[in-house]
Amino acid sequence: MRTVLILSLAAVVLAACEREDRDYRSNPVTAETNEKIALVPLSAGPGGPTEQRSGLGKDYEENAYHISQGQRLYTWFNCNGCHANGGGDSGPALMDDRWIYGGQIENIVQTIREGRPNGMPSFRGKIPDDQIWQIAAYIRSMGRNVPKPAAPSRKDDMSPGPAEQRRPPGEVIDGGQIPPSAQMPQ
Amino acid sequence: MGGVRLALVLALSLILQPASPILAQSTPPQPAAPSFAATPEDGQWTIPQKNYASTRYSDLSEINTETVKNLQVAFTFSTGVNKGQESAPLVVGGTMYVLSPYPNILYALDLTQPGAPMKWQYNPKPAAAAQGVACCDLVNRGPTFANGRIVFTTLDAHVVAVNAETGEEVWKTKLGDINRGETMTMAPLVVKDKVIVGISGGEYGVRGWIQALDINSGQSVWKAYNTGPDQDVKIGPTFKPFYDSDKGKDLGVTTWPADAWQQGGGTVWGWLSYDPDLNLLYHGTGNPGPWNPNQRPGDNKWTAGIFARDPDTGEARWFYQTAPHDLHDWDNINELILLDMEWDGKPRKVLVHPGRTGFLYIIDRTTGEVLSAKPFHALTAVTGVDLKTGRIAYNSEKEPVNNRVVRDICPTAPGAKDWNPSAFSHKTGLLYIPHMNMCMDWESVEPNYIAGTPYVGAEVRMYPGPGGHMGEFSAWDLQAGKELWTINERFPLWSGALATAGDVVFYGTMEGWFKAVHARTGEVLWQFKVDSGIIGQPTTYRGPDGKQYVAILSGVGGWAGAIVSGDLDPRDSSAAKGFVNAVRDLKNVTTKGGTLYVFKLP
């Protein structure tokens, strides 16, 4: 945990150099973890892409408390408005095995922070970093890419289908969907 | 879905509106298109509505009940986009114009050459991020032609005018901000020298408006909001609504909780009609936002209703609210068909409107008086329309409650019928309505307004209505207020209708059948299976070779078909705002597409 803290503080300090607004200390939503993750299994040269994970992701996605917090925040920040309860709407399905921008928790954290070109808003500065991780952990539970005991067992509201815990363990297939803009002629 | 309950509701609605005395007298003349829409057929199809009265009827009759069985494919063309194709192919002179869903590419095809080769394409390059704030797939409902220009809207809320000959951009005007959830999907209507357009985004807390642009410059001439103070709504001394509930000062503010009108919806994304004799523009207004009605006690003016406005100034003339304090997402943007009709022995200029509420409204288009409102869908959520007050009666048992699931609500959120337009045959005098047969469960939850994200507050799941089928294609007798015949379809009908003088009526299904049916009997005379489900608007024209052609875009999608076009996951019954639950099998029946099909006789 401490290294993460130091890393994130370092990130804040570094980021602050570029920022006009100086009151970053009082605003925890600007703090940001900095995991090294790739979007593809392919790399230039041998050995695959360079990735470096602190282990924070595991801490979140194996923890029932974080996942259930994430479930609450998923609705709170209107993710469900665009992704429904994981089945998708204007945004793609998140409970399936196909991931445009990577299905590891670190990828998902980046997706939430930075947004994605075809209509995924950037939530940087809007959601505190630890909550982004909690939401990402919950999203990992939708396709049951988290341990069964950690996955939510039931929803309080209208049941949209079997609870995460009752779903079979999932897998992650990267690059499974063609972003609509790729279909654009010209 | 007790049949008894349905019968009860039907009976109640009959009590609320006593049978018209006309039924007892000699049969009145059949309803007719107004003279401005009954001009000699020129063989073109220049606006999606076909004419200002929006009858979607062509006087061409080479393809008729005898010959239609021989229809064959003349040519096809790929729009290059695999999203829901709701647009209408237009024909002006020897050129066909086809508009794709986002990224809204406009193609001109040369009908004078074999195979209709492409003359040019115009790509407005809309912002990709707009895709996130499009509620219901990336659809566009069509371009329109006027003054040598093709005019259309883009998903990222621009309006573009393109030279119809050359494909050069004449002007492009930005009218909305996707960061506030504002998009555009409707087909503009040109009235005199003005392009009339409106904003979409009723699921994102957008404050709805309609706007007129100068056709030569693209500059805004007037803009009227559908919520807020009278001044913004363009309500002044000439506003004379028929019913008392629409009279009073600043109702667009006072019928809302403080400031709620600012995110109140009332968007304009559907069909416009225009009466040149009365010089009145007609447009509907969308659902109030958020869907959860408990957030917005009051009538929520001027959402979910119909406005008549002066197209020169935007000033409102009358308004009628089909769903005051809307409970179920019943936008009122469906087609507004202008007809001449005898009512109680007197000739009336009417506006005919099959609404999401489940009622077929016949409204005096001079005054806004509702003459009749007859159900065309199984109803549990509403019991009738009181013609004295104009007010719809909701069934209190089906009113949404926060955090409780209310079951068996019919019709559903997309309504008895959504955007896909009906056609009126000038010949048979019948209205052909593509509609649905569905019910839903609904749980209201507290929404959270974050600009640029959805503002809905409801969990919904839909399913088939009584009988188990989800689509119906009905021929409606306006005078009698009932359907003459109906064709049941497995999936909801999301395609428009086309009526022709050959007594053949066309529509398409989400499985991908393009059908020609007998206008008087409903007998299916010909059908052809295209590559993907149909949710588009069929049109017909006389080609440069003098022959009659019929055109339709295939490519499933829209709200109903988002499960296929957006690769949604059927394990989540709430996906696509609950539509996925009803059409969970659609992926096993059809795949994505985007192809123009044009048919002719050999």
List keywords for this structure.
heterodimer; A: 186 residues; mainly alpha; Cytochrome Bc1 Complex, Chain D, domain 2; two-stranded parallel sheet; 35% helix; globular; disordered N terminus; B: 602 residues; mainly beta; Methanol Dehydrogenase, Chain A; four-stranded antiparallel beta sheet; 33% strand
Order of helices and strands of chain A: HHHHEHHE
Q: Give the C-level CATH assignment of the domain at 53-176 in chain A.
A: Mainly Alpha
The CATH architecture of the domain at 53-176 in chain A: Orthogonal Bundle
Question: In angstroms, what separates the terminal alpha carbons of chain A?
Answer: 49 Å
**What is the helix content of chain B?**
under 10%
Q: Beta-strand level of the residues of chain A, as a percent range?
A: under 5%
Q: How many angstroms does the end-to-end distance of chain B come to?
A: 48 Å
Provide the low-confidence segments of chain B as ranges. Answer: 1-24
Query: Can you tell me the residue ranges of chain A where pLDDT is under 50 for at least 5 consecutive residues?
Result: 1-27
* Number of extended strands of chain A: 2
Structural class of chain A: mainly alpha
The biggest chain-chain interface is: A-B, 40 and 49 residues
Overview of the molecule:
The complex is a heterodimer of chains A (186) and B (602). Chain A is mainly α and 186 residues long. Chain A has a domain at 53-176: Cytochrome c-like domain (Cytochrome Bc1 Complex, Chain D, domain 2), CATH 1.10.760.10. Chain A contains six helices and two strands. In chain A, helix 3 packs across helix 6 and helix 5 (105-114) crosses helix 6 (129-142). The model of chain A is unreliable at 1-27 (pLDDT under 50). Chain B has 602 residues and is mainly β. Chain B has a single domain (30-600), classed as Methanol Dehydrogenase, Chain A (8 Propeller), CATH 2.140.10.10. Chain B is built from five helices and 38 strands. In chain B, strand 7 (144-146) and strand 8 form a beta hairpin. The N and C termini of chain B lie far apart (48 Å). Residues 1-24 of chain B have low confidence and may be disordered.
